[in-house]
Amino acid sequence: MDTVIKAFGLVFQFDVMVAVVASAFYGLTVGALPGLSATMATALLVPVTFYLSPIAAVATIITASAMAIFSGDIPGCLLRIPGTPASAAYTDEAYAMTRKGQAETALGICLWFSALGGIAGTLSLMLIAPLLAEMALSFSTYENFWLAMLGLMCSTLVARSSPIKAIAAMLLGLLITCIGIDNPGGVPRFTFGSTDLLGGIEPIPALVGVFALAEVMRALTEREPPKIENRKLGSILKGQWQLTKEYPKQQTRGNIVGIIIGVLPGAGADMAAWVSYAMSKRFSKTPEKFGTGHPEGLIEAGASNNASLASGWVPALLFGIPGDTITAIAIGVLYMKGLNPGPSLFTTQAESMYALYIIFILGNIIMIPFGIIMIRLASKVVGAPRSAVMPVIMIFCAVGAFATAGNNLFAVWCVAFFGLFGFVMEKNGYPVAAMVLGIVMGTMVEQNFVTSLIKSDGSVLPFFDRPVSSVLAAMTFAALLWPVFSWTREWLRGRSRTVAA
Amino acid sequence: MLLSDRISGSAIAALGAVAFFYGSKLPPVPGQQVGPSAFPMVIGTGLVICGGLIVFGIGRHFEEVAEADVAHHATPEELAPLPAWRNWLALLPPALLAFYALASETLGFLPTAAIMVLVASLAFGAKPKLAVPLAIIAPFAINLIFLKLLRVPLPGGILPFPW
């Protein structure tokens, strides 16, 4: 109880409150602008968090990402253009409701069920994380190695692309972390005589490049989205309670699927929305209504993507394994603030963890009033011309990376390089999220790998000896072989069909 | 910037091979079997295998499924092709960042950022009526945020921040 009171003391401070409110509006704005993702919002926040207290820093990330995921639904509803990729799954549905003259209801569903989903996700984080932490305290380097490998493999499985390209992307990320002097031998590795490379590639400039600069580049190759016309909207929350009572099953299922996908490394809000929307359609009694402006799928998927946000922090806080691309950035901030991820975080920094839960709940509650304000202002915010927003973001990429790297221009080169690299990768079907996971986790994977090998005197057998590590190893190999299995099944099915015909 | 799988796969395999050989040349830690070379060699091997599989088009099927899904959800306007030169325009932001890295120390933040904003804004199709004021105001505002709020001194150069 004492820790909870302390946690409230940590949260309800002037700087934290200012940080929450400011990042809420920032997140809502960025999310509502088409082409700017929640991950980009988080990446651009990092230099600001550098100068905040640890709790305020984490609070800005939590609030901004939750708000951005919700507000991505706004242009989806009004324009049929998802504000963030996490809204893409149900944009058609929401827009169909708007065309039927139910824009208020559609926006209301997105807001209300986003907030409820966010709170459900937080509850799961509060329940799962401490339980797992107790278990994880007994893990040795073998378990940690397999857990990290499993995380990396999951990130390749969930990528909506070729699994081989995803694995290649992930390995490229791991290779990038080999650069520098921070390795088991302490020798300069892949530095090619450059003093800048001795320190290695910092994850933050790389992430800013991949998630922010690459978005600016992509925007240059795409058409300017149309403007939202100024329309009069009625009461946003009217009828939402009715819908909550009408679709309890869809909502619960959306929350649970979102939580599970959030915990899976590398899979985040966009994946959660796609899976939940498909699931809602499959289990619906009226699947034919989907796509015509039916609230069912919207409720399930809208709850799901926000639920995934909080549970994405479970592996991030416990093992330093990002649950999604947003927590990939958050892990960097946690290290920067001395809140190094690990199971002991829940005992030594218990009040900080409680503070984190409180911020999550708080963020999802204030989402409702702030969200309503944003919906009313949407036509003005989304109307901001791209030619004014994008150049400013580009400058932020440069200066932000420069500031986080201790005023080093090498970081700006990193941003430019990774922006280009990420853009080319994405164009050619290599999922950047997998590479980012590699970059964030590389050092940890290598440490556990080499320490384990040293302990075992170079033998691989002890990697499979302990019960937990053998289970994790089996799961990793299953994840590696899953694409082969699913491809064979489809191939066999295709063949039996041609034989039958 | 669309490369064929053959090219990107071979590049990955070649990079893997280089990582493997470079890794194997690293000096070992005395008295230990495993040192800094183990991890790059494992990754290098993995990259060679993946690159090879990509060259032979294995796993391409999964991509086609995902692409069809995206096309199914896109609006017709989004799918309409843009002129090819627009693709090359994407090189502009990294080029401008390189310009920042090279010029900001001598020119100073304000002029460098002003040039970057002006060029980028025009590339996005802004009229000079918008681009010029933006190029003057935005760098000032950003400099103010970083200097006063975050206490990051940005390079002064020929035109330092006036207060």
Please describe the topology of this protein.
The complex is a heterodimer of chains A (501) and B (163).
Chain A: H1 2-11, H2 14-32, H3 38-49, H4 54-71, H5 73-79, H6 91-99, H7 103-136, H8 141-158, H9 163-177, H10 195-198, H11 203-221, H12 240-246, H13 248-263, H14 269-283, H15 295-311, H16 313-319, H17 325-336, H18 345-348, H19 350-381, H20 386-404, H21 410-427, H22 432-455, H23 467-500
Helix pairs in contact in A: 1-19, 2-3, 2-4, 2-19, 3-4, 3-11, 3-17, 3-20, 4-7, 4-15, 4-17, 4-19, 5-6, 5-7, 6-7, 7-13, 7-15, 7-16, 7-19, 8-9, 8-22, 8-23, 9-22, 11-20, 11-21, 11-22, 13-14, 13-15, 14-15, 17-22, 20-21
Chain B: H1 5-24, H2 38-55, H3 60-73, H4 76-79, H5 85-89, H6 92-107, H7 109-123, H8 128-149
Helix pairs in contact in B: 1-2, 6-7, 7-8
Give a verbal description of the structure.
The complex is a heterodimer of chains A (501) and B (163). By secondary structure, chain A is an all-alpha fold. Chain A contains 23 helices and no strands. The longest helix of chain A has 34 residues, at 103-136. Chain B is mainly alpha-helical and 163 residues long. The radius of gyration of chain B is 24 Å and the shape is flat. The two termini of chain B are 45 Å apart. At the A-B interface, helix 9, helix 11, helix 20, helix 21 and helix 22 of A face helix 1, helix 2, helix 3, helix 5 and helix 6 of B.
